[in-house]
Amino acid sequence: MARLMAILMLFAAAPAWAGVEFGARLEQSFWTVSSAPDACELRHEIPRYGVARFQERAGHELGFRLDTDLSGASGREARLVLVPPNWRHDLRPRHLADVGSEARTLSLDRATTLELFHALEAGYQLSVEHPSPGAGGFQVAAAVSTVRFRDVQAEFSRCRAGMIQLDFRPVAEWRVHFDTNLSRLDARAHETLREVLTAWRAQRHMRVIVAGHADVRGGDTINDPLSRRRAEAVRTFLDVYGIPRNRIELRSFGATWPLDPGEGEAAWALNRRATVWLAP
């Protein structure tokens, strides 16, 4: 009887595990690179949990975001811990950050993103820990694996080096689109540009930069002046409705900066555009 009581007391004293762990098994663990003229992404799938991404866009710094598939996970603070490789017995897990989430997305600032990037290069794994969605009361831990992270670093670096470089850092961005071979603004473009006007009136110290683009058809002799005319059409509208002409900077990229590098009308329609940025 005494022995049975001792066993029962031992089980009673042992902490109960009330958590769920997510992570890719070794054979599932991959990092993949996707690239475009204005963006590079390094992506890692966490089965049944979500996707971790390092992203860099033209004019923006490298960032990290974690999108979760868990319903009800938004608005919950997460604890981020860097876990050293098993063979590094001299190292202990270290706290990276405590962050909140919005709309099932967790994002990091530039300094924390760089610290995480270099930690993954060094073999650390990221553990993202937060309360479970709903009223279950248990903890969730999602692992961002370091397996094969270094295998794609050269490709990711080439993408970042080849990305279109901007000489400003935008704080807001809008796009308007055009019909084939035209620079006329339609009603939807007018609506978008009124949003630009409203935003600029609230922060008149900002620079306004307008860039014109074309789809790949036509060649440089057509696309370069066409993209310039599209930028000029946007500048004229903004000037007429309140932003002084001398405050608007023009750029034109021809067909060198497609949103969609594919072929066909759907891709071409996306690429026939002008982009408007506000920047300090």
TrEMBL record:
<protein>
    <submittedName>
        <fullName>Sodium-type flagellar protein MotY, putative</fullName>
    </submittedName>
</protein>
<keyword id="KW-0282">Flagellum</keyword>
<keyword id="KW-0966">Cell projection</keyword>
<dbReference type="Pfam" id="PF00691">
    <property type="entry name" value="OmpA"/>
</dbReference>
<dbReference type="GO" id="GO:0009279">
    <property type="term" value="C:cell outer membrane"/>
</dbReference>
<keyword id="KW-0732">Signal</keyword>
<feature type="signal peptide">
    <location>
        <begin position="1"/>
        <end position="18"/>
    </location>
</feature>
<feature type="domain" description="OmpA-like">
    <location>
        <begin position="171"/>
        <end position="280"/>
    </location>
</feature>
<dbReference type="Pfam" id="PF18393">
    <property type="entry name" value="MotY_N"/>
</dbReference>
<keyword id="KW-0472">Membrane</keyword>
<dbReference type="InterPro" id="IPR036737">
    <property type="entry name" value="OmpA-like_sf"/>
</dbReference>
<keyword id="KW-0998">Cell outer membrane</keyword>
<keyword id="KW-0969">Cilium</keyword>
<dbReference type="InterPro" id="IPR050330">
    <property type="entry name" value="Bact_OuterMem_StrucFunc"/>
</dbReference>
<dbReference type="InterPro" id="IPR041544">
    <property type="entry name" value="MotY_N"/>
</dbReference>
<dbReference type="InterPro" id="IPR006665">
    <property type="entry name" value="OmpA-like"/>
</dbReference>
<dbReference type="InterPro" id="IPR006664">
    <property type="entry name" value="OMP_bac"/>
</dbReference>
